[in-house]
Every structure is written in structure tokens, then in C-alpha cells.
Write a structure and sequence with these properties.
With 287 residues, this protein is an alpha/beta fold. 41% of the residues lie in helices and 16% in strands. The protein contains 10 helices and 13 strands. The strands form 4 sheets. Strands 4-5-8-9-10-13 form a 6-stranded parallel beta sheet. Helix 3 links the parallel strand 4 and strand 5. Helix 1 packs across helix 2. It is globular and about 50 Å long.
Length: 287
């Protein structure tokens, strides 16, 4: 790992065990790694449902073992895939009431995900009908507004993202993150990323690397520099989407990411905003 400081860093998208797919760290190992480098917070993500209960146990363990000697907090989330009953407002409300801070729309169950993977998109979760949000999605918007939660667009197509974001804004959702738009499976063009930021003031989550299939990952770092310059750092969230055994461990990936930005002319104050200040605002915590 490089010598760049991760003190106070926040990552809003990390995968860990237990998971159907083997991850590099389990929840406690990830927590301990974050504490070692002085991180402020991590949001646990799983495609299989919710993680707020796992986050609670991490924080309780931290309190018992470390006795308040650090500021690290683990946060949970919910992903609205088939495993939780699709766009299930009851599941989302329970997760939010129990402390989840992020609601991701469908990932592996999204029609776009299935289509891009060569499967039947009709088997996916329907978020739009006749070009408008389905009633369940409107309920999800209401919950995100009431709990001041982050809405993540997950694995929707670019066209779906624009409709969802416009409708979410109209419904009063304040915190909207376009999830890894650079990933080929989402495939949002540079022009569309600029447009969705300009028109709706959303945040673009830009991740460390993207899965190209067959266990191969491609670095996003050069393109991340380009998007920061194109839309402005104020609209870019630095996340790793880390945890894969094929990629560097979470803390190494984050350090490489920040070092790359530094080496390619992104000012320290802007890096601090994207990796600390902005995610703290989204989570509603002190950086």
C-alpha cells in the first residue's frame, strides 16, 4: 500500500463475507482493516439483501474490543433484488428503521443486468411501466425522503436512470447517487453523465475497477480523472466497490485510488471532499 493517508476516509460501497460469492474480508476483518488505517466509515453492500444488522454487530464489536478509541462506524444498506421481494417497501422501511443509510435499486435482478448478461430481461425486476415508475418505486422514493436516505440507481440502464432520477427528484428525494455509471454493464456515456449531473444535481459514484467477466477487472482510474474534470469534483463520490478476491484488499485499493488522483493533478482539497466530506454529508455524519 502507498504512503498516502486514509485517515478519515469513507467508502460507501464495499462487499464482504458472508456472501454467496467469496469475498476477501469478512465483516470484522474489514472493520479492523478500516480501524488500522484510520477510516471514518464504510457502507456494507450485498446483492442478497440487507446489511444493517451486520453493521450493528460490527459497531458493537468495535465498542467492546476497542472501547471507543477510534471514530470508525460501519453502516448498512439494502439492495432491492429478488431476495427481498423486488421493490419491497416493507423490506426497505424495516431496513431504514434499523439504521440502513442506503437503498440500492435492483442490481443482479435488474432487467438491464439480465439483458447485458445475455439473459431474459423479462425475468428482471420492473422499475418502470409505460415509461413511468411503478407504484412500489414511488413508495421507495417516499421512504428515502422520510428517512433522508441515499438512493442508489444500482444496475439500471442509462435510460432508466434518467427517468428514475427525474421522478425521485420530483418526489423529494434529496440524496441520489448514480451507481458506477462507468461500468460497461451500466454503460452511461460521458455525455450522459455530464447531462444527468447538470440537469438533476446528482452524485456520480466512481469506483476503483470494473468487472469485465471471467475474473478480470479493468482499472477505472484514468476515466475517473476525466469525469472529475468534466462534471466537477463536487458531484463525484469516491468508492472502491471493493472486496473481491481478484482485486487489492479494500484499504490498498482505496490508497491506490487516492494516490492516482494525486499523481494526476487532482488537488488534495478536492480529493478530501470526494472521499470524506461528500460521503459524510450523504450519510449524515461528521467527517
Amino acid at each position: 500500500m502507498s504512503g498516502i493517508s486514509l485517515q478519515g476516509v469513507i467508502d460507501m460501497h464495499v462487499h464482504s463475507n458472508p456472501d454467496i460469492r467469496k469475498r476477501a474480508y469478512d465483516d470484522f476483518e474489514l472493520m479492523e482493516a478500516a480501524i488500522r488505517v484510520g477510516a471514518r466509515a464504510i457502507v456494507l453492500k450485498t446483492h442478497q439483501g440487507a446489511t444493517m444488522d451486520r453493521a450493528y454487530l460490527c459497531n458493537r464489536h468495535n465498542q467492546i474490543v476497542h472501547g471507543g478509541t477510534n471514530r470508525f462506524t460501519m453502516f448498512g444498506s439494502i439492495t432491492l433484488n429478488r431476495q427481498v421481494g423486488d421493490l419491497n417497501p416493507a423490506a426497505a422501511e424495516a431496513a431504514l428503521a434499523l439504521g440502513a443509510r442506503v437503498v440500492w435499486l435492483p442490481t443482479s435482478s435488474a432487467a438491464n443486468h439480465l439483458k447485458q448478461m445475455g439473459k431474459d430481461p423479462a425475468d428482471g425486476v420492473c422499475v418502470l411501466r409505460d415509461g413511468k415508475p411503478v407504484p412500489e418505486l414511488l413508495s421507495i422514493f417516499r421512504l428515502c425522503r422520510e428517512y433522508d436516505a441515499v438512493l442508489g440507481t444500482a444496475h439500471l440502464s442509462p435510460a432508466e436512470c434518467f427517468t428514475v432520477v427525474e421522478s425521485a427528484r420530483a418526489a423529494g428525494v434529496r440524496k441520489i447517487v448514480v451507481t458506477h455509471p462507468e461500468w460497461w454493464l451500466v454503460g452511461m456515456s460521458l455525455e450522459d453523465q455530464v447531462r444527468i449531473v447538470r440537469d438533476y444535481g446528482v452524485v456520480l459514484e466512481r469506483c476503483f475497477a470494473q468487472n469485465m467477466g471471467g475474473g478480470h477487472y479493468q482499472s477505472n482510474l484514468p476515466d475517473n480523472v476525466n469525469i472529475i474534470q468534466a462534471v466537477g469534483y463536487e458531484h463525484v463520490l469516491i468508492s472502491t466497490d471493493g472486496g473481491q478476491i481478484e482485486n487489492p484488499h479494500w484499504e490498498d485499493a482505496m490508497a491506490q485510488y487516492l494516490q492516482y488522483l494525486t499523481d494526476h493533478g487532482i488537488p488534495e482539497a478536492q480529493i478530501t471532499y470526494m472521499s470524506r466530506t461528500l460521503p459524510a454529508k450523504l450519510l449524515g455524519i461528521d467527517p
